[in-house]
Design a protein that fits this description.
Elements: E1 3-4, E2 7-8, H1 11-21, H2 36-59, E3 69-71, E4 77-79, E5 87-93, H3 100-114, E6 122-128, H4 136-143, E7 151-153, H5 157-166, E8 171-175, E9 182-186, E10 190-193, E11 199-203, H6 209-220
Parallel strand pairs: 5-6, 6-7
Antiparallel strand pairs: 1-2, 3-4, 5-10, 8-9, 10-11
Helix pairs in contact: 1-2, 3-6
């Protein structure tokens, strides 16, 4: 969905519903399965909140987006105001994600590359939803495989959850059966923030770079 001139098109509903359809995955392969009883508890606990978040994102009745202060690779607090004058493409995910996250990060990277010199006016930002494992150095190494302009941010669980809530996103740790490992159940929309730090709209996971280029160029022109 994309907000233009203060309006949210009906495409918003399709975007969020498509995002929800891609929202669950795990990183440990077919031999590892999440504990069914644990998954059921997580789903029950999150169901109402997620429905409310989706309704807020689709209807735009509640404010979406806002300021944040999270830590970059050097331990420096970064805020939305740091990117003033640039279009921010924001994504929430985690480095152990096996398919959806890397596929979307690749498309975001292709967006920046496709813009050529104009890509300097775009700041791709990745906020981890798994700060327990995603250290600043791990984020740096992981994101360097996609595009050198990617900036990874982390913080405490409460800080990250606060930012995700502002963007009507969600995440939850789900332990894997007979393992000390875990997967992350989370939303995976691609958010667009304009040069003044205002939320413009969101795209569902799987959105192609060509569509991102089309909308970002409108913001840059």
């Amino acid at each position: 969905m994309v907000r233009k001139s203060g309006r949210l098109a009906w495409v918003a509903a399709l975007a969020v519903l498509a995002g929800a359809a891609f929202a669950m995955w795990h990183h440990d392969g077919p031999k590892r399965q999440a504990d069914p009883s644990t998954v059921a508890l997580v789903v029950d606990a999150e169901q109402l909140r997620r429905a409310q978040q989706m309704e807020a994102l689709m209807s735009a009745k509640a404010p979406i987006g806002g300021g944040f202060a999270l830590v970059d690779y050097a331990g420096v607090r970064r805020t939305v105001s740091d990117f003033q004058g640039k279009v921010v493409v924001l994504y929430f995910g985690y480095t152990s994600c096996p398919d959806v996250c890397p596929a979307d990060l690749f498309q975001i990277s292709e967006l920046v590359r496709a813009l050529g010199a104009s890509g300097e006016q775009v700041q791709p930002v990745f906020i981890t939803m798994d700060p327990e494992r995603d250290t600043p150095e791990r984020l740096r190494t992981y994101l360097s495989h996609f595009h050198p302009r990617f900036l990874g941010l982390t913080g405490s669980i409460d800080e990250i959850r606060g930012v995700a809530d502002m963007y009507k996103g969600y995440f939850a740790k789900v332990p894997l059966q007979n393992s000390s490992n875990y997967m992350m159940d989370h939303s995976a929309n691609i958010y667009l923030i304009d040069r003044e730090g205002r939320f413009v709209g969101a795209f569902p996971p799987g959105t192609k770079a060509s569509r991102l280029v089309e909308v970002v160029r409108q913001q840059l022109s």
